[in-house]
Write the structure tokens for this entry.
Amino acid sequence: MSRPLPELEMTNGQRWLEMLIVLLSAALIIGTAWSYSGLPDRVPLHFGTSGVADRWGDKSEIWQLPAICIAVGLLLRWLNSRPDMYNYSVPVTPQNARQMYQTGARFIRLVRLWVVVIFCLAQASIIDAAFRQGNTPVIWFIWVAIGGLLISTIWGVYRFHVSAPK
């Protein structure tokens, strides 16, 4: 089934959000590069819920998180440009397509933001723990960011149903 594809323009708020996503992604890469030479040869790569490292590896593995973040970010960026491909929980009609697609694109943009924030916090935890020999106080920030992602998801589902035809 073919869906209508109206032209969507980004608002100023969405442009700012895009810039924030790019800046945070750049900060992730620059922060990793900046701290890399000072890291010990073995760094913590995974933490239990208590914040204590439970897996260690070579410091070159620290580049995995930025690489995954950029790959996921690019995939979500592409998906952001194709709201007609989303699996909506309500019918998309010519009458509601613009509103549904705007809501969908806004939702994916928020997901992208939270993904970058989670990856930045995870990388900050790894770098911090490497200098602290495996303990990090930053772990609770990641749980807050995951909560933000869940709240954004609930908001997105709600907005789709509010935007749906009555």
About this structure: Residues 12-35+42-163 form one domain. The mean pLDDT is 84. Residues 97-131 form the longest helix (35 residues).
